[in-house]
Amino acid sequence: MTVLLVDDEANARQLLRSLLAEHAPEFEVIGEAETVKEAVKKINSLHPNLVFLDIEMPNENGFALFEYFENPPFKTVFCTAYAEFALRAFEVSAVDYILKPISIEKLQAACRKVLQQSPGNLSSQIQLLRESIADQRLSKIALPLSDGLTFVDLKNVLYFEADGSYTHVVTLAKSYLVTKKIKEFDDLLTQNEHFFRCHRSYLINLQNIKKYSRKDGNSIVFENDKWIPVAREKKADFELLIKSLYL
């Protein structure tokens, strides 16, 4: 896989080049650029399969690269030092990234992911990422499916249901089976007050509850008439959250 390195710091480019040569030899660095405009020229002339892209660059940040390519003909791994919220934005948009300072283990993991990556709509992913970071909130999530990515509004999600190493993401319109554990979605949405882990098998969207019953145990019914249990140890937290949001 041919690679272009885009970073305004020469030392950072040299370090990444050295790490790839030693620890990911199947990735061949064919060029470097220190600005977005230089990167555009290199991409058009060298046609790399993959771009390692620094975000925090002077004049134009890394996101500006995608204003020059309506349908990017290359895969992208962002190199970033962003804070915790932005990292969740990367996760929900299914955009690959590595944190600075770059570790060998994280670089190798990113490279493996790129090699296994299914085709996706990179423009849509970048748009979702930029909106999430700008608004400081997560409004959509990209679901990796066997044939690519599906973008879902979080407000339309009813619940996430665990199924071993998979998760059923159930929305108002349909259900998706995703190759992620429910804990990964729980971690992503931990600061979203409308999502609550009511049971080890369920992460629910409180905005789409139709009824809550204390009879025959504690359970919730959703807009699709699905009944979901509330674990005994979660009952007090659930009722307190409902009271704070809606009563």
Please characterize this protein's 3D structure:
The protein is α/β, with parallel strands linked by helices. It is built from 7 helices and 15 strands. The strands form 4 sheets. Strands 2-1-3-4-5 form a 5-stranded parallel β-sheet, with helices on both faces. A hairpin with a 2-residue loop joins strand 8 (157-163) and strand 9 (166-171). Helix 3 packs antiparallel against helix 5. The longest helix has 14 residues, at 10-23. The chain is elongated and about 65 Å long. It starts with a strand and ends with a helix. The relative contact order is 0.09. The mean pLDDT is 89.
Which geometry do the CA atoms define? elongated
Low-confidence stretches: none
Largest sheet: number of strands, sense, barrel closure? 5 strands, parallel
The SSE order reads EHEHEEHEHHEEEEEHEEEEEH
Strand content range: 25-35%
Q: Strand order across the biggest sheet?
A: 2-1-3-4-5
Mean pLDDT: 89
